[in-house]
Specification:
heterodimer; A: mainly alpha; two-stranded antiparallel ribbon; 2 strands; about 0% strand; disordered N terminus; B: mainly alpha
Chain lengths: ~325, ~300
């Protein structure tokens, strides 16, 4: 950044007329004002994070202090009995995100390799743009499609695996479809940061496309790839709308993969509008837990992506 | 690329040597997997778009835009209007805050520890779950005031768009070459004038792209609106102190509590089509704006 220090100080006039001097003074005041205002807005970001944490802790505290550790081990969420256990929601969140990542990562990597290495040049841009546009489709659309089209289809074609159509596995599948464009877009961007020279040299040595990808491209952008996947995981963990429709909303802990369950975000979205008192506090505590988990996950992703940015600037 | 095709077709490098054969076979298997993955991913998305268009278009008629939402039948007019109002206001707030904060990060913050920390936190907030933002606004606005309101919805959407605008503003200002700043300073321009006249005009297209992408993102957000603006069946012209009808919440309610009424489900698909088309258009406009900058 350049430093444009305001040149004239009070005692050195350098032959400037009084009007010029006052203009300099005015501009200097404006300079200070501009810097301080913009800094105030930048500090707002920290304030935002601080108040999010504070408000969730304060409003979730009654439930946390009431239940203590039982909040995390109690196996049911029964508002009518005033028993609130987060275990079914935690289990559902982890299982659905796990399924989503397990499906989405290989598929996204495949698409990204195809787009960067194998795709004909004429198709590359349109396909890439399509992927980016699809990453912008709102999540409620995925949810609606899941409950109207996918769940009935699974129920009628695979009744042994999906007895009800909805459930944890269905939710995981929808999440996977939703984060595929997202992870693909990041993976492709990251893979394109590898200089063409390096890539062409490897091809020149006689490597096959797969060998170039595995031994040249992947090792040099490892951090970025992992960062992108974790970013996708963060998205899957906190996703509400795509999941709520198809997860089944079973509030009792049920350690299966295909059965019905619930996730933290789905539970909050379902119960919050009618909640009151202790139940509302418990839901806010659940929100706090989700925020802390995603914050940690996203922080790890960012550290990895930033480290890569520093090493390989575009 | 050319090297590879040569090596595959050249007679010296493709003997009946088993090592070569194995490598080529393995490569073909992996590439086949990649193409299958691409097809797999794209088929899902095409299926979704297909049901969106067929189910949405069949329910689309003029009354969808002109009538308000009702328990049965009706249209989506008030929901579309409410969404437009809230998204626009949130975008305006987000633009002011985001551009100012991004300016500080790019022009003043530099590599200082505070700026790096703010940047990091902003990146995390950029992908924080939107439902958390809804809970946050509920706790600080709805709970103290005692009622759901359009303002709370605007606040939630603004919190979601701010990190997007900050990020793109900072990135775009950093692309303005330093020599331009130095030239302006050498002519005697003060720092604020340099930023306002030189840097902003250079980064304008990129900043606008960022704002449009952020706007596209918040216009489809449902989760934060459940606890903030809620929804209503009435027309609401700028009475932001009361509950505000909006399109995403209408879709949600029509597909859950009202899903036993076939017409409401049809309306939900029509709304989904309208929402998706609007968001895709915003995305495309954003892309066109940033392309023009390059060209």
């Amino acid at each position: 950044m350049t430093q444009s220090t305001s040149g004239a100080s009070e005692d050195v006039t350098l032959g400037a007329s009084p009007t010029e001097q006052s203009a300099v003074k005015r501009n200097r005041r404006l300079d200070g004002l501009f810097e301080h205002t913009t800094r105030g807005f930048a500090l707002l970001v920290l304030l935002l994070l601080g108040t999010i944490m504070m408000s969730l802790v304060i409003s979730g505290w009654p439930a946390l202090s009431e239940f203590g550790w039982h909040f995390f081990t109690e196996d049911r969420w029964a508002a009518n009995l005033d028993r609130f256990g987060a275990l079914p929601a935690i289990y559902g969140t982890l299982v659905t995100s796990g399924i989503a990542i397990a499906i989405a990562v290989p598929v996204s990597m495949g698409i990204a390799i195809f787009l960067t290495e194998k795709c004909p040049a004429a198709l590359r841009r349109p396909l890439g743009t399509t992927v980016e546009l699809l990453a912008g489709v709102p999540s409620i659309i995925y949810g609606m499609w899941g409950v109207e089209v996918l769940a009935p289809f699974l129920q009628s074609h695979f009744p042994t695996i999906f007895p009800a159509g909805t459930g944890l596995a269905t939710a995981g599948l929808i999440l996977a479809v939703m984060i595929i464009p997202f992870i693909t877009a990041i993976t492709r961007d990251v893979m394109l940061t590898v200089p063409p020279m390096v890539r062409e040299s490897a091809y020149g040595l006689g490597c096959t496309t797969w060998e170039v990808t595995r031994s040249v491209i992947f090792p040099s952008v490892k951090g970025g790839l992992v960062g992108g996947v974790i970013l996708g995981l963060g998205r899957a963990l906190g996703e509400t709308m795509a999941v709520t429709f198809v997860i089944g909303n079973n509030l009792f802990f049920n350690p299966t993969v295909t059965g019905q369950g619930t996730s933290i975000a789905a539970l909050i979205a379902n119960q919050f509008p009618e909640a009151d008192g202790l139940q509302r506090s418990a839901l806010l505590a659940l929100g706090l837990m989700l925020f802390v988990i995603t914050f940690i996950v996203l922080a790890i992703a960012r550290v990895m992506l930033n480290r890569m940015d520093r090493r390989a600037p575009k | 690329m050319t090297e590879r095709t040569m090596s595959e077709s050249s007679p010296h490098l493709t003997p009946s040597n088993p090592v070569y054969r194995r490598r080529r076979l393995f490569n073909r298997v992996v590439m086949a997997f990649c193409m299958a993955a691409a097809a797999f991913g794209i088929i899902w998305l095409l299926l979704i778009l297909f049901s969106l268009v067929t189910k949405g278009a069949s329910a689309l008629e003029l009354s969808v835009f002109t009538e308000r939402t009702k328990m049965t039948g009706g249209g989506l007019g008030n929901a579309i209007l409410g969404s437009l109002i809230m998204t626009t206001l949130a975008t305006i707030v987000g633009t002011i805050v985001g551009v100012a904060a991004g300016t500080w990060l790019a022009e003043y913050g530099g590599k200082s520890r505070l700026a790096s920390f703010i940047r990091f936190i902003n990146d995390v907030l950029l992908s924080a779950p939107s439902i958390i933002v809804g809970l946050y606004i509920y706790a600080i606005l709805v709970l103290p005031s005692g009622h759901f309101s359009g303002w709370a919805g605007v606040a939630a959407l603004a919190v979601l768009i701010i990190p997007v605008v900050i990020r793109s503003t900072e990135d775009m200002l950093k692309l303005v070459p330093n020599s331009l700043r130095e030239a302006a300073s050498a002519l005697g321009a003060h720092r604020w004038l340099v930023v306002c006249k030189v840097c902003y005009s250079g980064a304008r297209a990129g900043i606008i792209t960022g704002i449009l992408l952020g706007c596209a993102r918040i216009s489809g957000e449902t989760a934060p609106l459940i606890f903030t603006s809620l929804n209503s069946n009435q027309w609401n012209f700028f009475d932001l102190n009361s509950e505000m009808p909006n399109l995403p919440m209408t879709l949600y309610q029509n597909m859950t509590i009202n899903s036993f009424i076939p017409r409401q489900v049809e309306l939900a698909w029509a709304g989904a089509l309208i929402l998706t088309v609007a968001i895709l258009l915003l995305n495309i406009v954003a892309r066109v704006v940033s392309e023009r900058r390059k060209g």
